[in-house]
Amino acid sequence: MTPHNLADMRKSYTLAQLDEVHSKSNPLEQFQLWFDEALKANVPEPTAMTLATVDQHMKPSTRIVLLKGLDDRGLVWYTNYQSRKGLELAGNPFAALQFHWVELERVVRIEGHVEKISVQESDAYFQSRPIDSRIGAWASPQSEVLQIRDELENAFVKVKEKFGDAPPRPEHWGGYRLIPTEWEFWQGRPSRLHDRLRYQKQPSPSTWLRDRLAP
Prior knowledge:
This protein is an alpha+beta fold. The chain has a single domain (about 10-130, about 170-210), classed as Electron Transport, Fmn-binding Protein, Chain A (Pnp Oxidase, Chain A, Roll). It has 5 helices and 9 strands, in the order αββββαββαααβββ. Strands 1, 2, 3, 4, 5, 6, 7, 8 and 9 form a 9-stranded antiparallel beta sheet that branches. Strand 3 and strand 4 form a beta hairpin. The mean pLDDT is about 95.
């Protein structure tokens, strides 16, 4: 039993609208515009994005990762290459990302091909991380079963004793870049008549087809 009637829980979306006249013709420019507005609005965790991958049996899985790089090449995040998402991307290098900025009544979806970023880029970012995060990248066998939390805490202590304040980047840890082939921008509207603009990559360089989808 739930303490509330879920069927009666609803919200009316009235903050903004999204149309073809005022939106950008390039999806990256539109994303940067919305992202800047999310920052100005002090949206909690504006870089948080859901990453969806599919395993060899076509079973999907999702998790939250943080956007750490953005340019015309794509969107970058960092993780353990041996984690569940890393293994799934090794078998199927296609994925989807989603941002949900609740306070602005906005969602952005991105689909595309995923590749590892360069060793140099991963090294540079790793060295910019707080020391405890760098040690944690060594200590955590991400996605593996732990019998008790002490295993993780003890591994952290051992790594810290081994490397001190200068742990190198583990070979199993680094960045991924999703190269977009499709973007969708969703703006909540009254009566559930939401605005949805989709951008699809075209064969010619830097060309995007923009169309409107029914909500």
